[in-house]
Structure formats: structure tokens, C-alpha cells
Amino acid sequence: MIPIEELLEAGVHFGHRVNKWNPKMAPYIFGERNGVHIIDIIQTLGYLEESYLFLSKYTVKGALRNSSSPSNPKTFGEGIGQKVLFVGTKKQVASIVQAEAENSHANYVNHRWLGGLLTNWSTIKLCIAKLKTLRASGLFENTEISSVNNSTKTSLVTTKKEKALLKKQYEKLKKFFSGIENMSDIPDIVIIVGQDCEMNAVKECQKLASSWRSDTNSTKGGNALPRTITILDTNCDPSLADLFIPANDDSTKSVELILKKLGEAIRIPR
């Protein structure tokens, strides 16, 4: 696991100002310094390990269920990653969320969370299908693409005005859906950075929790598994997360360090 010195150097232990705290985070706070809450970094390490082990065990089971060649690292990573969704739309963490998700062959949302992304999945799938159609046309990624079949272009566009409208639609779809373009179904695990900014995602996960648990029982047997892993700062609510890691969710170094460790659990071959 990560050395404590490295966690301290990344500022993982720095919370919010004391007047911004959520009392439910009290058990995970070591104290305060200069009006700022200090997170108990020993607990951070313990909860990070718990989340890491959960992901590791999940990926082993997932590899056996979904991959014909679990010993192949690339096949293994791609197959399991597609069942994981990273969520973090705060400006300072958006690029980190995207990078770690891509490294893990996982899905991500790093712009605004669109309402119904999980609870209205059938509609979202139509938007993704439209994005794929427009991307495959070759009309928008580059202005000159010799390899694109002209008949494909003609079937989509007949006038410059029509192309301009489609380009606008394409750019919007790409902004919001490119991170989940390869997500074939509702994810099994959602990793959330910045609970205070991602409450819509949290609520949708909670709404689907009962159906996820029912599906887990029917397909895998045993007790329902937790589905969300959340980095919780001192202004967050631990009761809204299945698994959580008490840590600074505003610092880029803190978020990057934690997501890299969670990503390792997804990628590691067995």
C-alpha cells in the first residue's frame, strides 16, 4: 500500500475549514490546525486498502465470468474496466479522472453529470449510438479524410447547413458521452470523486442499488456487494457511500494518488 509519507506529501490529510464540516465525518478526523480539519491518515490508509481489496476480488471474479483469457493482461483489463465508472466533474480533477479511467480501460464522466445517465439508461444508449454513428461517418474529426466512403457522408449530410447542425450535435455528444462510449450497460462499480459536486450521481446509484443487489443475488449468489467507492472529504456524508476513503478530494495530488492505487486493483492480472 502507499507509504504514509507519500500520503502526507500529497496533502491527503487536509480537510475543509472547520465551519464547513459534516458531523458524520467526525470519526475520521484527527483534529484541526489553523481552522482546518485534519483527516486521520491512518484511517485513510485502512479504508484505501479495503477498497483496493474489494476491487481486486471483484476483478478476479469478473475475469472468470467475462474473459476467455483472464491471464492476458490486456483482455483482462479491458473486460473488467468496462464494468467500472469513474465520476469526477470538478475542474481540478477532471483530467485525472479521465486519465486513470483510460489507463484502466474503464468508463468516466468528467463533465456535467446528465440526469438519468444511469436511471434512464435506455435513452442514454440512444445518445451513445448517435455519437458512434457520427464519429464513424468521418465528417467531423478531420475535414479531409480520404478513407471515408463518400456514400456514408452523403447519407448523413446533403447541405452545408445540415453539416453545421450535425457538427454542433456531434461536439455536444462527444463532450458528454465520449467517456462512456464503450459502456454497454449500467456499471457494476462507480468510483466517485467529490461527493458534494456529484450528488446527482450519488442519488442515481442509490436509486438503482436495490435492483443491483437483486441482480447480484440472482446471478452470483450470496449477499449483495457494495457498488460505490467514494473519496470523502470532511464536508461529505459517509452514509451515502458503500465503500469510502476519507481523504482530500480537492487536491490534484491527493486524488491522483488514490485513483492510481484503485486503478491498479482494476488492471492487475491474476
TrEMBL record:
The keyword Membrane does not apply. It comes from the Eukaryota. It is found in: Plastid, Chloroplast. InterPro entries: Ribosomal_uS2 (IPR001865), Ribosomal_uS2_bac/mit/plastid (IPR005706), Ribosomal_uS2_CS (IPR018130), Ribosomal_uS2_flav_dom_sf (IPR023591). GO terms for cellular component: chloroplast; cytosolic small ribosomal subunit. The gene is rps2. SUPFAM superfamilies: Ribosomal protein S2. GO terms for biological process: translation. One of its GO terms (molecular function) is structural constituent of ribosome. This is Small ribosomal subunit protein uS2c. Keywords: Chloroplast, Plastid, Ribonucleoprotein, Ribosomal protein. Belongs to the universal ribosomal protein uS2 family.
